[in-house]
Amino acid sequence: VGALNSINVYTQMNRTNAYLKNIQNATDFVQASITSLDRATSEMQNIITVATNSVNALNDPNYATMAQSIKDSLSAIVQSVNEKHNGMNLFGGTNFSDDLASLDVNGKAVASAIDHSGEIKVQISGNTKETMNIPGNKITGTGIFSAVNSIIDSLVGGNAPSQAQLDALNDANIKLINVQTQAGEKISRLENMNDVLTTQNTNNEKLLANIQGVDVAKLSVELNEQDYLLQITYKLLASAFPKSLFDYL
Questions:
Q1: What pTM was estimated for this model as a whole?
Q2: How does DSSP classify residue 57?
Q3: Which residues are registered as beta bridge partners of 177?
Q4: How far is CA 225 from CA 1, 72, 221, 229, 239, in A?
Q5: Of 64, 211, 222, 235, whose CB is crowded by the most CB atoms within 10 A?
Q6: What is the 3-state secondary structure (H, E, C) of 118-136?
Q7: How far is CA 219 from the centre of its chain?
Q8: Would you state the torsion angle of the CA atoms of residues 90, 92, 96, 100, taken in this order, to the nearest 10 degrees?
Q9: Nearest CA to 100 among 181, 37, 157, 178?
């Protein structure tokens, strides 16, 4: 029984360790995605600041410089969303080789026409899978590229962005932050499951130690001693009480 219990515990521990490894890999991937999104949102704040300041009539002579500043921030955003982790595009979905976006000759962003909506799921418990990536379509769906490109076009054309353009820029930024928040929620779920599985492993290690700590030889000797005493007891009882009619039936 002890051997069978040990095998069962070992099997459960190996399965748990596999889940823990999946969780660690997924956590590293999501954390890299969050770092990339942090840089992107930081650059978006720079773009919003420049775009907002460009509405001031005093900045009319600075439109070209402001447009270049926004292009530089946009370039940094494109670089961030094309980042890789262990050779895999962070926001490539299940397409690991193609970039999510690029820059054209005018410094504006162009979203890839390739589908980057795939989800990468990993098993983190017997009945639970978690998506370890942020699909690229969640980023392109925020509208950040079209919103920033529109601002660039206005400034390059010698015009301040309209309120509608600024609103679109702010809306895209909020959506990008929401994507970042979703990534943070993934990290929380992974960390919670990691704690649960780590506790299970600790308990199984204690259980295994108790099972393996049993001295079979000692228990065998004690069992023989108890059996000998039981047989003696039977003999003493048999000799102490007279036979009844039932003994002959």
A1: 0.79
A2: G
A3: none
A4: 21, 87, 6, 6, 21
A5: 211
A6: CCCEEEEECCEEEECCCCH
A7: 48
A8: -100
A9: 37
